[in-house]
């Protein structure tokens, strides 16, 4: 099974709101109808943090920046790896690039000294947005990538070569034919289980390649529907507690949208830790997994 993190970084929102610069490539995102979305997001973020801490997960929290509305979705600009590597990623939206703060990079470099910095590709319009773009199954040496304006295949291939991973790339779309903006809204892997919206992978060869790769890795596979993807059932993160208990971090929206059989399959593998995150889901187009950056 893939090693699950027991330590995560969360970036507390400051004046959270819908990001106009990302709405064109994020069909999940909607203009906030709740005028008090910033206050609601802050309360939900703290509630989620507390649920994780109560479950034995170590949480490091840094304060966000009011100029960066998507700062809480911190898994997009960096990833850490057990080898000691810190990867910095190129981001599509200009106002998301300021999330890659030097003070946070310096803190991370103290623990992950080998830096792979891909951010310069922003200048040439090439993007790869962290573990949003790449669903990594480290134990089996595989990374899955749903290609989109935020996820370039060539960049993914190059990074996978650096990290010693095999890339499985594909195109996955919603019912309207729009590519999912990130891989981590339509699949997750962990604790010997993988959930994927196979019906969204319209090319037969690509769909078979994904399912074959997951089967060869020995994962129990849960098939998600596009409707469940819209409820953030794909935006789940496998974690473990300080007592080595296996956990699933997800939103309450996602927890309610799994079928009974799917929930039983999840609970055979790990305990579900959920919290309300609808402020982030509605205004930001992201959920639980997007709010957590693993510190492996």
Output the radius of gyration. 17 Å
Number of domains: 1
Overall CATH class: Alpha Beta
| Average residue pLDDT | 94
Query: What does the main sheet amount to?
Result: 3 strands, mixed
Percent strand equals 15-25%
CATH architecture name: 5-stranded Propeller
Write a short abstract of this structure.
By secondary structure, this protein is an alpha/beta fold. 29% of the residues lie in helices and 22% in strands.
What tags apply to this protein structure?
296 residues; L-arginine/glycine Amidinotransferase, Chain A; three-stranded mixed sheet; 10 helices; 15 strands
Q: What would your notes on this structure say?
A:
The structure is a single chain. The chain has 296 residues and is α/β, with parallel strands linked by helices. It has one domain: L-arginine/glycine Amidinotransferase, Chain A, CATH 3.75.10. The chain is built from 10 helices and 15 strands. The chain has helices spanning 37-54, 94-97, 102-109, 130-133, 153-163, 204-216, 226-230, 252-257, 260-269, 278-284; strands at residues 7-12, 58-63, 78-80, 85-88, 114-117, 134-137, 142-146, 166-170, 187-190, 193-196, 220-223, 237-240, 246-251, 271-275, 293-294. The protein has a 3-stranded mixed sheet, with helices on one face. Strands 3-4-5 form a 3-stranded mixed sheet, with no helix packed on it. A hairpin with a 4-residue loop joins strand 3 and strand 4 (85-88). Helix 1 (37-54) packs across helix 10. The chain is globular, with a radius of gyration of 17 Å.
């Amino acid at each position: 099974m893939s090693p699950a993190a027991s330590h995560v970084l969360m970036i507390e929102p400051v004046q959270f709101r819908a990001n106009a610069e990302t709405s064109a490539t994020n069909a999940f995102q909607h203009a906030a109808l709740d005028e008090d979305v910033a206050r609601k997001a802050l309360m939900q973020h703290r509630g989620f943090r507390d649920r994780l801490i109560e479950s034995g997960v170590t949480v490091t929290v840094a304060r966000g920046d009011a100029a960066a509305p998507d700062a809480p979705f911190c898994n997009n600009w960096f990833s850490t790896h057990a080898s000691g590597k810190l990867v910095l990623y190129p981001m599509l939206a200009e106002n998301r690039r300021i999330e890659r703060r030097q003070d946070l990079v310096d803190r991370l470099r103290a623990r992950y000294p080998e830096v792979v910095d891909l951010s310069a590709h922003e200048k040439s319009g090439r993007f790869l947005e962290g573990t949003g773009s790449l669903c990594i199954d480290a134990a089996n040496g595989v990374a899955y990538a749903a290609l989109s304006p935020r996820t370039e295949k060539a960049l993914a291939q190059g990074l996978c070569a650096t990290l010693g991973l095999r890339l499985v790339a594909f195109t996955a779309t919603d019912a309207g034919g729009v590519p999912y903006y990130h891989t981590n809204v339509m699949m997750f892997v962990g604790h010997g289980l993988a959930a994927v919206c196979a019906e969204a992978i319209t090319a037969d060869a690509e769909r078979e390649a994904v399912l074959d790769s997951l089967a060869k890795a020995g994962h129990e596979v849960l098939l998600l529907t596009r409707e469940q993807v819209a409820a953030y059932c794909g935006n789940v993160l496998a974690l473990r507690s300080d007592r080595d208990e296996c956990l699933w971090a997800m939103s309450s929206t996602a927890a309610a949208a799994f079928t009974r059989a799917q929930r039983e399959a999840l609970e055979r593998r790990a305990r579900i830790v959920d919290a309300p995150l609808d402020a982030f889901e509605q205004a930001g187009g992201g959920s639980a997994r997007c709010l957590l950056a693993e510190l492996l």
